[in-house]
Amino acid sequence: MSFIVAVDGPAGSGKGTITKEIEKRTGLINLDTGATYRCFALEVLKHGYAPSDTKNILKLLENIDIKIENEGNEDVVLLNGKDVTDEIRTTEVTEASALISTIKEVRAKMVELQRKMVGNKNVIVEGRDIGTVVFPHADLKIYLDADDEVRAQRRYKEYIEKGMNITYDEVLEQIRWRDENDKHKEVGALKKADDAIVVDTSNKSIDEVVESVKAMIEEKMKEKEKNNVENTER
Predict the structure, then answer these.
(1) CATH of the domain spanning 3-233
(2) pTM of the prediction?
C-alpha cells in the first residue's frame, strides 16, 4: 500500500526544492510531475510544431516515452531514452509547456503516466493539480505559496546560476503570466484542494519549511499505520 504526499502551488513557491529535501530526509520518492509536461513540450518544439498545432501535437502522444529516475537523490529526466534534465528548464520550454498542458488529451496522458510512475511506492509528488486531480485521495495534501516578487527572485537566481541571460523584471512578468494561466486553465488548473494545508514560504528558510512538512508527514504516516493495524485486527 502506497503513501502519497501531494504538494501543489504556483511557480517559484519552493515545491521542487522542498520535495527534494523531503526525499533526502524521509526516504519518500520525489516525483516532479511538471517534468512530464516539460518533456512533452520539448518533444513538440523539437518537431517544429507550434503549441497551438493540436492536430500534430496529439500524434506525438502515441509514442512518447518519459521516465524520471533517481540517482543519488538527483532526478534524471529521460525523454525517449535521452537525458533532458537541464534542457527542459529553458524559458522556451517553460512557456510552451504552460500552453500545451491546457490540451485535455495531453493532460489525460500525462496524468495516466504519472499514476503509473507512482504505483505502490511511498512518494511525495509535486505539481499544480496533484491534490485535486492526479491524486485526489492522497494521504496528505500541502499547498505551498509565496508572494509573487519573492517567487520571481528565487527563479531569477536559479536562471542566473545557470548562466541564462534574463532580467528580474522579465522573470517577474513570466511568473505573473504563469499564475494567471495556471489558475484559469480549463483542465488541471492550479487550485488548492479543500483539505490541503497551506504553507506560506515567503519569509521562511528552506530548513524551516522542510522540517514543518516533515513533521506533518511523520504524523500522517503514524496515523495511517495505526489505522492499518486496527483494521487488520478486526
Answers:
(1) 3.40.50.300
(2) 0.82
